[in-house]
Each structure stands twice: as structure tokens, then as C-alpha cells.
Write a structure and sequence with these properties.
It is a single chain. With about 55 residues, the chain is mainly alpha-helical. It has one domain. The chain contains three helices and no strands. It is elongated.
Length: about 55
């Protein structure tokens, strides 16, 4: 994949390897956190939006 990205987008293959590895790590980390945190984050955002609307 990194070789193809380097050919199509430019840059070195090693740079693309690092970028793909980091993206994969971040994806795996977000998946391991579970959906429960997504629900909590949505709740927190809605709660902050509500309090911003009521502030003078």
C-alpha cells in the first residue's frame, strides 16, 4: 500500500509506511474504546450546546 501511495501521491515509501502504521494504530485504538464513549461524547456535546444557549 505504501509503495502505491508513494507512486500515486509522491513522497517516500517509508513516509507512507509510517503514516499508514499510525493511521492503523489510531483506528485500532478508537475501535478498542467501544461505542459507549461515542454515546457519552454525543451527550456531552449536546449538554454543552444546551448550556451555551441558556447563558446570558
Amino acid at each position: 500500500m505504501a509503495a502505491r501511495l508513494a507512486r500515486e501521491r509522491g513522497g517516500s515509501e517509508r513516509s507512507w509506511q509510517r503514516a499508514v502504521a499510525k493511521a492503523h494504530m489510531l483506528y485500532e485504538h478508537s475501535q478498542s474504546q467501544g461505542q459507549g464513549q461515542d454515546v457519552q461524547r454525543d451527550h456531552d456535546v449536546k449538554q454543552e450546546a444546551g448550556s451555551a444557549q441558556t447563558a446570558p
